[in-house]
Amino acid sequence: ELRRMVRDLVGLRGQVACGDPTADAFIDTVPPWMDDPLPDRIAALERETEERLADHLGLGRKVLASLDPVTRPVRRIDPLADHLGVRVLRLLGFVWPDTSRAEVSGQVDLPPELVLGPTASVRQITDRLGLLLEHEQAPSLDIDLREWVSRCFASHHAARFRRRPVVIQASQDRLRLVRAAPESQRQ
User: Residue 17 in contact with residue 23, Cβ under 8 Å?
Assistant: First the structure.
């Protein structure tokens, strides 16, 4: 039972990687306006696994409760910035390496007519991003998309991709895709 729980926990953590644009297993982000039940499921399964492990080791619940919990470093991730950043990358034509899994899961739904190509102006990106968010039925966001694309995207993207961005700010008003997926993996 304990092994099954650990396998389930590893599987759930693998699903988290499918929502991280910097992970090899990336499929898509969860729009921040939608509920993501995954963190709650992981937390509940972690608690249950710890209790089972304590029972297996002969520790009582009292001893388990007195132990300091294992803490992991907190990653400061802005879900909205990640979601918008992924959408900008897709608008510029970037495709993550494992597109077959995304197509099977049905999670990536970018109308082809919205794709701009490897170089686009901030205005073009902003206009298409607005259309894409409408297509995704996003609620009204409390940000100015033009401001975000022109001033925030490049720094968020560079920080998120650990200073190895796939998009650069070619000029004050243009973004350019500098690294694309191999031709065989493009949609």
Answer: yes
